[in-house]
Amino acid sequence: MTAETLALIAAYFLCSEAAEVRVLPPAEAAACVDIYTDVKLSFVDGVDRDDYDALSTSERAEVNRRGYAGYIAWRDENSTLVVQLERDAQDQIATEGS
């Protein structure tokens, strides 16, 4: 796992936590969708964002399924880290709301 991928996952958790406590404005929601897509792509070898954007709808769906499966496997294998990243995101959102 690269530091970049870990940062993407942390950003995704931040998006997820923000969406739990408030309605995200359209631009922020779109940015979060992009982050989540990049997280999934990080678990698919040989497909970067440019490749993904050039795929057909059905091909994107397959890449999304593979990426999601890889992400879920990573979560299962790293449950302690996942809990910490989620807690960090919760703390950051709580601090922003203060």
Distance between the termini: 33 Å
How confident is the prediction overall: mean pLDDT?
96
Structural class category: mainly alpha
What quaternary form is this?
A: single chain
User: What proportion of the residues is helical, as a percent range?
Assistant: over 70%
Low-confidence stretches: none
Note the overall shape.
Answer: globular
Task: Describe this entry's structure for a reader.
The structure is a single chain. With 98 residues, the protein is mostly helical. It has one domain. The protein has five helices and no strands. It has helices spanning 3-21, 26-41, 49-54, 57-77, 79-96. α1 runs antiparallel to α2 (26-41), α1 crosses α5 (79-96) and α2 (26-41) packs across α4.
Structural key phrases:
98 residues; mainly alpha; 5 helices; 82% helix
List the helices and strands and how they pair.
Blueprint: H1 3-21, H2 26-41, H3 49-54, H4 57-77, H5 79-96
